[in-house]
TrEMBL record:
SUPFAM superfamilies: Zn-dependent exopeptidases. It comes from Calidris pygmaea. InterPro entries: Cytosolic_carboxypeptidase, Peptidase_M14. This is Peptidase M14 domain-containing protein. It comes from the Eukaryota. Belongs to the peptidase M14 family. The active site is at E134. One of its GO terms (molecular function) is zinc ion binding. Residues 188-228 are annotated as: Disordered. GO terms for biological process: proteolysis. Its cofactor is Zn(2+). Residues 1-171 form the Peptidase M14 domain.
């Protein structure tokens, strides 16, 4: 939680001092953005530690207009790297019925340059992946625009558990978990497979299949409630 004072006062986007904290990652002030400054320094220390390999960076936000959970990712020039970045949200789409891959977007918009996802995407190396996980303030859609299901605390927690399950699946597929915690189908291969996700109806336009352009990167971080 990087915006405790703002959220305490009911601000879902800005801090007590009126700053949108997820626009100040490039040069956070220890006075005006102390939580950002502290986390950024911690990430840099971990990144420079040869004993630590930062593989994922995920900040978590609530979205005020769209439905379901979905992700924002960065763009790579290299097609193969871009496809590797798409693996995690595709796996999450298989695990979580309320996660929409059709609403997942990969971009490098100038207006998002100060976000953690964009800034750390340019800082960390090419073995790291950086995402923003957005989850609706309101509802998720399962079968159509008339079947919106209101989010509850239990539903948010379930999505969190599905994110954790997706990490396990990801590392199984990459042969980094030698002994899985649960039996896996014999047909599961070591190489990352093709994925099929049924897009939810009633979502915004998809940019998930857009042409790759640039880069992205990674760790795991929890941000305050904030729309992107």
């Amino acid at each position: 939680m990087l915006n405790p004072d703002g959220v305490y006062l009911g601000n879902y986007r800005c801090s007590l001092m009126g700053f949108d904290l997820n626009r100040h990652w490039a040069n956070p002030s220890p006075w005006a953005h102390p939580t950002l400054h502290g986390v950024k320094q911690l990430i840099i220390e971990m990144y420079n530690n040869p004993k630590i390999n930062l593989e994922f960076y995920i900040d978590i936000h609530a979205h005020s207009t769209m439905m379901n959970g979905f992700m924002y990712g960065n763009i790579f020039e290299d097609e193969e790297r871009f496809q590797r970045q798409a693996v995690f949200p595709k796996l999450l789409c298989q695990n979580a019925e309320d996660f929409s891959y059709s609403s997942t977007s990969f971009n490098r918009d100038a207006v998002k340059a100060g976000t953690g996802r964009r800034f750390l995407g340019g800082l960390l190396n090419d073995t790291s992946y950086c995402y923003t996980l957005e989850v609706s303030f309101y509802s998720y859609i399962l079968d159509g625009p008339t079947t919106a299901v209101p989010y509850t605390e239990e539903a948010y927690m379930k999505l969190g558990r599905n994110v954790a399950r997706t990490f396990l699946d990801y590392y199984r597929l990459n042969s980094l978990v030698e002994r899985p915690l649960a039996p896996t189908p014999k047909t599961r291969k070591e190489k990352l497979p093709l994925f099929k996700c049924t897009p939810q109806r009633g979502q915004g336009n998809s940019h998930a299949g857009g042409k790759p352009e640039k880069r992205s990167q990674a760790l795991l971080k929890d941000q305050s409630l904030s729309t992107r």
